[in-house]
C-alpha cells in the first residue's frame, strides 16, 4: 500500500504517542539538572560602555546553572508546558586584560525564572529564562559587586521523542537541553558602565560543574554567602550498589569523588536528600525518598550478582540493613542477602565524618521493593555540603 508523506508523519506520531502512553501515571514531572557551559564551545567579552570601545575577550568560560523544571505531562502527546527556576548560578571566566577575572552568580533577592514548552513529537522546544545575576571582576583590585538582569532563550531541536523515551528508559535526562544560550547585559564597575556578552554552548547533566582552581579561588568567596556551600548531585532512581534480585538490572550508582568537592578524611559532610522518585515507570514525581550511601577507597564497582560489589567499601555511620530476597532455580530456592555492613542511611539528612582512606562516596536510592529497573524520576538527588571553600591567605 502506498503511504503519502503526510500519512507517514501521522503514523509516526501515533506510534510515538503510543510509546509515551506506555509510561503511566502522568502528572507533575520534575527535572532537576545542571545546565553546564561547554568551555570549548563558548565565547564572551566585556567592554566599557563608551562609543567605539574595544571589547576584551573572555577566556576559559566555565560553570553552570542548577535548574529545576516542573512540567505537566498530562498533555502528552500534545506539547508539554512547565516552569523553570534557576536555583544556583556559577559562571567564571578569565580576562587577561584589565578585568583579570569575572564571576557571576544568582541574585538571592531576585529569582531567576522562566517557562518551558516541549513539543516532543514535533522535535522542538523553547525555554525562556529571565536571569538575575550578581557579578564581579578583578577590575581595580576586585570586590565591586554589581547586579545585572537579562533574558535568554534555549531553543531545542532534534529528535526529542527519542531523547525523552531514552531518559525514561535510562532514568537520566542528561543531554536533553543541549543547545546554545546567549546573554547580554550592562553593569557598572566603580561607576563605569560595562557591557558583557556571552555566547555559550551548553548541555545538561546531574553533576555540578568542575572549575579550574583559580576560578574557584577567585569566585567562591562571592558565591558562597549568597548561594551556600552545598553541591547538588542527581541520583538515578534506577541505580544501586547492592546485589540485585534475579531479573532486575540496576544501573551504576552515583559515585562522587571527594577531591572534586574539596573533602578529605576527617572532614564532616552534611548530606541531604532532594526530591523523590517512583517505583513505577511513571511520567510524574513519585513519593519515595529512601537513600543510602557508602564511602570507598576506590571507584571500583563489581557486577550486580555479587553481594559485596564495592571492594573498597569503608565503614561509616550507622549501618542500614537492606534485607534479603528469595532466589529460585526450578524448585530449589535459597535466601540471598543484599546487606553490606559499611553503608548508612541518608534520608532525610545526615552529618557524617569522612573515614580514613575514603576517596569516593557511592550514593543510591533504596526502594521498598528492593528492585530498581522500573523506578522513575528525574528530580531525585543529594546535596553534599563540605563547608566553606578553604581560602588561602
Model description:
- This protein has two domains: 22-228; 230-393.
- The strands form four sheets. Strands 1, 2, 3, 4, 5, 6, 7, 8, 9, 10 and 11 form an eleven-stranded antiparallel β-sheet that branches. Strands 13, 15, 16, 19 and 21 form a five-stranded antiparallel β-sheet that branches.
- It has three helices and 22 strands.
- With 393 residues, the protein is mostly beta strands.
- A hairpin with a 7-residue loop joins strand 2 (43-48) and strand 3 (56-57).
Query: How many β strands by DSSP?
Result: 22
Order of helices and strands: HEEEEEEEEEHEEHEEEEEEEEEEE
Global morphology: globular
Radius of gyration, taken over Cα atoms and rounded to an integer in Å: 23 Å
Main beta-sheet annotation: 11 strands, antiparallel
Overall tally of structural domains:
2
Content-based structural category: mainly beta
Count of runs of 4 or more consecutive helical residues? 3
Helical content stands at: 10-25%
Distance between the termini: 78 Å
Extract low-pLDDT stretches.
1-16
Query: What is the mean pLDDT?
Result: 88
Tell me the strand percentage band. 35-45%
Please describe the structure with a list of short key phrases separated by commas or semicolons.
393 residues; mainly beta; 2 domains; eleven-stranded antiparallel beta sheet; 42% strand; disordered N terminus
Question: Strands, helices and their partners?
Answer:
Blueprint: H1 5-21, E1 28-37, E2 43-48, E3 56-57, E4 59-72, E5 80-95, E6 100-106, E7 112-119, E8 124-137, E9 146-157, H2 160-170, E10 179-189, E11 192-205, H3 213-227, E12 231-234, E13 254-257, E14 268-274, E15 291-296, E16 313-314, E17 324-329, E18 332-337, E19 344-345, E20 349-353, E21 360-365, E22 381-385
Antiparallel strand pairs: 1-4, 1-11, 2-3, 2-11, 4-5, 5-6, 5-7, 6-8, 7-8, 8-9, 10-11, 12-22, 13-21, 14-20, 14-22, 15-16, 15-19, 15-21, 17-18
Amino acid at each position: 500500500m502506498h503511504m503519502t508523506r503526510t500519512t507517514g508523519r501521522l503514523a509516526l506520531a501515533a506510534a510515538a504517542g503510543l510509546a509515551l502512553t506506555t509510561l503511566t501515571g502522568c502528572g507533575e514531572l520534575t527535572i532537576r539538572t545542571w545546565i553546564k557551559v561547554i568551555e570549548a564551545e563558548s565565547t564572551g567579552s566585556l567592554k566599557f560602555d563608551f562609543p567605539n570601545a574595544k571589547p576584551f575577550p573572555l577566556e576559559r568560560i566555565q560553570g553552570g546553572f542548577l535548574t529545576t523544571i516542573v512540567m505537566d505531562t498530562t498533555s502528552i502527546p500534545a506539547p508539554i508546558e512547565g516552569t523553570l527556576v534557576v536555583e544556583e548560578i556559577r559562571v567564571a571566566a578569565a580576562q587577561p586584560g584589565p578585568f583579570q577575572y569575572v564571576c557571576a552568580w544568582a541574585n538571592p533577592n531576585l529569582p531567576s525564572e522562566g517557562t518551558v514548552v516541549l513539543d516532543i513529537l514535533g522535535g522542538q522546544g523553547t525555554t525562556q529564562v529571565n536571569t538575575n545575576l550578581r557579578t564581579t571582576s578583578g577590575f581595580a583590585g576586585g570586590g565591586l559587586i554589581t547586579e545585572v538582569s537579562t533574558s535568554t532563550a534555549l531553543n531545542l531541536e532534534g529528535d526529542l521523542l527519542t531523547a525523552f523515551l531514552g531518559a525514561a528508559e535510562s532514568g537520566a535526562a542528561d543531554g536533553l537541553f543541549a543547545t546554545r544560550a546567549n546573554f547580554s547585559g550592562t553593569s557598572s564597575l566603580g561607576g563605569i558602565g560595562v557591557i558583557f556578552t556571552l555566547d555559550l554552548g551548553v548541555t545538561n547533566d546531574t553533576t555540578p560543574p568542575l572549575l579550574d582552581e583559580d576560578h574557584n579561588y577567585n569566585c567562591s568567596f562571592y558565591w558562597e554567602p549568597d548561594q551556600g556551600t552545598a553541591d547538588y548531585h542527581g541520583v538515578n532512581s534506577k541505580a544501586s550498589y547492592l546485589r540485585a534480585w534475579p531479573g532486575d538490572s540496576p544501573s551504576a550508582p552515583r559515585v562522587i569523588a571527594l577531591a572534586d568537592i574539596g573533602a578529605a578524611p576527617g572532614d564532616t559532610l552534611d548530606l541531604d536528600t532532594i526530591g523523590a522518585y517512583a517505583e513505577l515507570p511513571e511520567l510524574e514525581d513519585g513519593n519515595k525518598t529512601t537513600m543510602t550511601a557508602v564511602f570507598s577507597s576506590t571507584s571500583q564497582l563489581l557486577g550486580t550478582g555479587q553481594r559485596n560489589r564495592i571492594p573498597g567499601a569503608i565503614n561509616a555511620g550507622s549501618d542500614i540493613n537492606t534485607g534479603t530476597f528469595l532466589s529460585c532455580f526450578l524448585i530449589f530456592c535459597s535466601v540471598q542477602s543484599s546487606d553490606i555492613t559499611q553503608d548508612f542511611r541518608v534520608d532525610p539528612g545526615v552529618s557524617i565524618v569522612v573515614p580514613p582512606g575514603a576517596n569516593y562516596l557511592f550514593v543510591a536510592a533504596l526502594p521498598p521493593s528492593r528492585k530498581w529497573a522500573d523506578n522513575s524520576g528525574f528530580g531525585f538527588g543529594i546535596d553534599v555540603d563540605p563547608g566553606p571553600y578553604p581560602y588561602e591567605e
